Amino acid sequence: MEDGIDFVVLWVDNNDPKWRQEKAKYDQLGRSTEDNDDSRFRDWENMRYWFRAVDKFAPWVRKIHFVTYGHLPNFLDLSNPKINVVRHDEIMPEKDLPTFNSTAIEVNINKIKGLAEKFVYFNDDMFLLRPVNKATFFKGGLPCGQGLEEAIIPTGDGAAYPHHLLNCVDIINRYFNKKEQHRKFRSKYFNTVYGIQNLRNITLSIWKNYTGFHDTHVARPFLKSIWDEVWEKEGQALSESAGHRFRTKDDLCQSLFYYWQIATGNFYPSKPIGQIFTIGETDISVIVETIEKQKMDVVCLNDSSSIKNFELLKGQINNAFQKILPEKSAFEK
Length: 333
Prior knowledge:
14% strand, Spore Coat Polysaccharide Biosynthesis Protein SpsA, Chain A, 5-stranded mixed β-sheet
């Protein structure tokens, strides 16, 4: 296989009438929680900037696998040979479709036909902000990452996400003895590149098992062979999770594969490449400044149900992207 790096990104158009009709049909429980409300599917109309950023800041990418229900952005030029549109029914069984659960989709992305061994997974709210190279994501043939532990702490809002992470850690602890892995990969778990963050592992070393892994929630590099290995060992659990049409607290997510890379030592110790901001909870001026001054390699702009002035915030964010990415990309008509 060609030694290239692919990008994988999930996208949904919540304005698609057919998609909305199907969502309403299956959502008979009238879910209005943080995990399933409109903010999980809302289109900020800035996907063109995702493609412009890839074109400008990562022109070396081999393929972009654009995973979608079937709808497409009206600007996208499908004649570009780097684009591979992947419908959900190409990677998921018919019985699990339609699905409105991003975690159900993402655990299946290793099923993408032609996916490179090395790939970087993006949510559609994760954007490159400045030039990156292959070594940003992979070094020595391994995905970059942080071998740092963390205590999983639900914050009392009832969100499913901390439970997803706990479910993933539960599986990791079935297969790996933390103390043995620390001895085996000591230089990866305790590394000068982490700086003061090494205190995380020192502090949490008193616990026999993994309590969780530090999660920066930005674009992540992966080895497809790791995904295949986890599917081989935990296929039943992953299949059951992928069958949840809407998010539940019982889900697994792509973090399982990241944690597996960390636990097995299949990573290159590196600093985080970006940061997550929750729109509506973070001052919009901080987000705009981060984009315009291109302060980091990757930024994640997390939507929130608490947003009251969506159109205003959308305009400010997209204006910031327009300032650093004013020109059409090779992926636009």
